[in-house]
Specification:
Layout (H helix, E strand, L loop, with lengths): L7 H10 L10 H12 L3 H13 L6 H6 L10 H4 L8 H8 L6 H4 L1 H8 L11 E3 L11 E2 L2 H8 L7 E5 L9 E7 L2 E4 L3 E4 H9 L4 E5 L16 E9 L2 E11 L15 E5 L10 E4 L2 E4 L18 H11 L8 E9 L2 E9 L4 H7 L6 H9 L6
Parallel strand pairs: 1-2
Antiparallel strand pairs: 1-7, 3-4, 3-7, 4-5, 5-6, 8-9, 8-13, 9-10, 11-12, 13-14
Helix pairs in contact: 9-10
InterPro entries: RimK-rel_E_lig_ATP-grasp
Protein name: Sugar-transfer associated ATP-grasp
Pfam families: ATPgrasp_ST
Length: 379
């Protein structure tokens, strides 16, 4: 049996950020040293350039300046550099663009699925919710004990199922249940757990949404066995739905989820109009690495086109107006053999992923004009 030392959500957060009191981030000297070696430019020149950009409209931090490769003057002129936007501005901008009384409709995953189940938007079925509080979930199976969880897993056709934190982000604590046998259950990457351990130690007091496992379109067999998704950054304008950035997220072998913080995962910059893969990148603390073919499978990536792209955009055009008060949105969409499926919709959406994946600053003329139209005039 697997040994669980802390709940999965906390464990995954520490895997990304380090334990309390510790930091996994490099220091200022490490960032400048890396940028100097990569560009052949001196530390004083780089510091002066960074100081200009941290005061510019994008308000870049030093880690962002280095990770985005903005110091590469062979790639970026001054105007292009100033299009890069700090993720520290995500919430100030989102608060201007969105009616935040609507936030729970996207961030509470059960509530969101309840809202969308009568729409034309394809979403995973809600199989149940694990919640040991006294919250009610009308029309949904609620699981509060280990015995109830065992009985749920024993229902024919339930396995495999996917569990994710109901109010979570970043796939922290997510799990995939593959098979069950008597008093224990097998989770991908975790091994066999008895139900008491799964509920008390792995899940803890965190509410979880349970859904059938989704399966990729055959296109993705060249790259991953785990579910890949497309991230769309969406502007809900008076003229309709606009998609200025699109990113394909590919989980590495052995990784359960596609979030870019997980080691070896890839983020691919897409042409938003066609779904053409323009870039494919992995990242570390100091920057990104570019690939033309998948580093694990060797199969070509750049130059290929994500299948069913018109249907992906069609899903976004159907879904976004339902959440019209949230004028800046993002969606994670799986492309399955049966068509696109909305995995999540978010209020706002981090600026880091599209900039890391594409190598382009988020503040295009269209995006900057949109943010200004929402009342954020500092761009």
């Amino acid at each position: 049996m697997a040994v669980i030392e802390m709940n999965a959500t906390l464990r995954d957060r520490q895997a990304r950020d380090g334990k309390p009191g510790e930091s996994k981030a490099p220091g200022k000297a490490d960032y400048l040293r890396h940028a100097s070696r990569a560009s052949g430019r001196g530390a004083f020149e780089l510091s002066r350039e960074f100081n200009r950009l941290r005061r510019a409209r994008g308000r870049l931090t030093l880690p962002e300046y280095v990770q985005y490769g903005v110091y590469r003057t062979d790639r970026y002129g001054r105007e292009q550099q100033e299009r890069f936007l700090s993720d520290t501005l995500h919430w100030p901008i989102t608060h201007r663009c969105c009616d935040m009384t609507w936030q729970a409709t996207t961030e509470d995953k059960w509530l969101c699925s309840h809202l969308l189940e009568r729409s034309a938007v394809a979403i995973p079925e809600t199989l149940g919710v694990i919640d040991r509080s006294n919250r009610a979930y009308p029309g949904t199976r609620r699981i509060a004990t280990a015995e109830e969880l065992r009985a749920f897993a024993a229902i024919p056709g339930t396995l495999p199922f996917f569990g994710k934190e109901n109010r979570g982000i970043g796939s922290y604590g997510a799990f995939l249940a593959l098979e069950a046998e008597g008093s224990r259950i097998h989770l991908k990457g975790e091994g066999w757990l008895d139900y008491d351990t799964l509920l008390e130690r792995f899940i803890g007091d965190v509410p979880y949404l349970l859904q059938p496992a989704q399966r990729n379109h055959a296109f993705f067999d060249d790259y991953t066995e785990s579910l890949a998704t497309v991230r769309l950054c969406i502007l809900m304008t008076d003229q309709g739905v606009r998609v200025p950035f699109a990113v394909l997220k590919l989980p590495a072998a052995g990784n359960l989820a596609d979030n870019f913080w997980r080691p070896r995962n890839l983020a691919c910059g897409l042409d938003p109009a066609s779904g053409l893969i323009r870039t494919a990148r992995s990242k570390d603390a100091l920057g990104t690495t570019d690939y033309e073919s998948h580093p694990e499978t060797g199969r070509p990536l750049t130059g290929r086109t994500v299948p069913m792209w018109d249907a992906v955009l069609g899903l976004a055009e159907t879904c976004a107006p339902i959440f019209r008060p949230l004028r800046y949105q993002s969606m994670d969409i799986a492309v399955t053999g049966e068509g696109p499926v909305l995995i999540e919709i978010n209020t706002g959406g981090g600026f880091d992923l599209p900039q890391l994946a594409t190598g382009e600053g988020f503040l295009t003329e269209e995006v900057a004009a949109f943010f200004r139209s929402c009342g954020y005039d500092r761009v």
